[in-house]
């Protein structure tokens, strides 16, 4: 018994060691990733099901590391946040998204609004609004072509500073969405202090919506509250027709998920649009 315990301890510590080393390597590589042009944007349509229109597309970051390994943001965004690299990376994402809009326009493709994820560190920088305006000027894209996604926990943090910035951004013409709604500290009371256009219901509630009464009740309540506050609702992670039917019966406004489209690179997304779906 003692022997086994010792082995499992050794296994555990060498596994931890491996993870620490890997995390460190990734951090070093992440530092170089911007210079090496290793980031790419993927795009995932958000649907208005009743009209079959694509109302917007979420911009999702990918990291193509040397050797062609595609790293998902769940792995590297936390490291980028921890090291502060999320600030230049986030600025790169917004600029690249605006450049993509302009590039599609030059090809005669009128794309819908793009929706871009923000992290707390980014929004927390003093010059955030100024930096965003600079990117719009540089690229010639109007603010009303972009939705900015903040998470629920960002609203609960330093509220006056965040509120002030979001009001500035909203009056510039940006739409504001609250991402992963329902998973953070609940800040229902705070919602009314912010200029919010959209709530995005987290996929953890959508997953079992047809089977789990509690998830269903939460989603129904979120939709009612959002509509009462003049906001619209996006359901994330919609994978089955049953989930779609359920949500649409409850008057959810928009849908995002593999049932419609997976996230894809810019070069693929326009070609892969289903015939009946239009921007
Ligand atoms: P998120 O903002 O909640 O984005 C939605 C995630 O759900 C994406 O994962 C998307 O690929 C995935 N997804 C979409 N439809 C479905 C579906 O039907 N089923 C399932 N199971 N998943 C679906 P992804 O692309 O791996 O991104 C993960 C997270 O990384 C994002 O979650 C977001 O928090 C963060 N992220 C991505 N890009 C950026 C970025 O440019 N900046 C920042 N700060 N965060 C980003
Ligand atoms: Ca998001
Ligand atoms: Ca989300
Ligand atoms: Ca999420």
From TrEMBL:
Annotated EAL domain residues: 23-277
Highest taxon above the source species: Bacteria
The protein, known as: Diguanylate cyclase/phosphodiesterase with PAS/PAC sensor(S)
Organism: Nitrosomonas mobilis
Part of the whole protein covered: 441 to 719 of 723
């Amino acid at each position: 018994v003692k022997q086994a315990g010792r082995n499992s301890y050794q296994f555990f510590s060498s596994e931890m060691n491996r993870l620490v080393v890997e995390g460190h390597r990734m951090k070093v590589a992440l530092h170089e990733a911007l210079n090496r042009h290793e980031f790419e944007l993927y795009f995932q349509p958000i649907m208005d099901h009743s009209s079959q229109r694509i109302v917007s597309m979420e911009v999702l970051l990918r990291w193509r590391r040397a050797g062609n390994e595609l790293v998902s943001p769940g792995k590297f965004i936390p490291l980028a946040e921890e090291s502060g690299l999320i600030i230049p990376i986030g600025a790169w994402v917004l600029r690249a998204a605006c450049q993509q809009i302009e590039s599609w326009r030059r090809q005669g493709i009128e794309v819908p609004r793009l929706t871009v994820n923000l992290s707390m560190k980014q929004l927390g920088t003093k010059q955030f609004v100024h930096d965003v305006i600079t990117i719009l000027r540089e690229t010639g894209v109007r603010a009303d072509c972009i939705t900015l996604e903040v998470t629920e926990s960002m609203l609960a943090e330093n509220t006056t500073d965040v509120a002030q910035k979001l009001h500035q951004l909203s009056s510039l013409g940006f739409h504001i969405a609250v991402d992963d709604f329902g998973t953070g500290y609940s800040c229902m009371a705070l919602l009314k202090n912010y200029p919010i256009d959209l709530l995005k219901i987290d996929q953890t509630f959508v997953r079992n919506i047809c089977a789990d009464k509690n998830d269903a009740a939460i989603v129904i309540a979120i939709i009612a509250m959002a509509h009462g506050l003049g906001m619209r609702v996006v359901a994330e992670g919609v994978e089955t027709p049953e989930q779609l039917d359920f949500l649409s019966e409850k008057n959810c406004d928009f849908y995002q998920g593999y049932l419609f489209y997976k996230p894809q690179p810019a070069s693929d997304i326009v070609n892969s649009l289903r015939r009946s779906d239009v921007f």
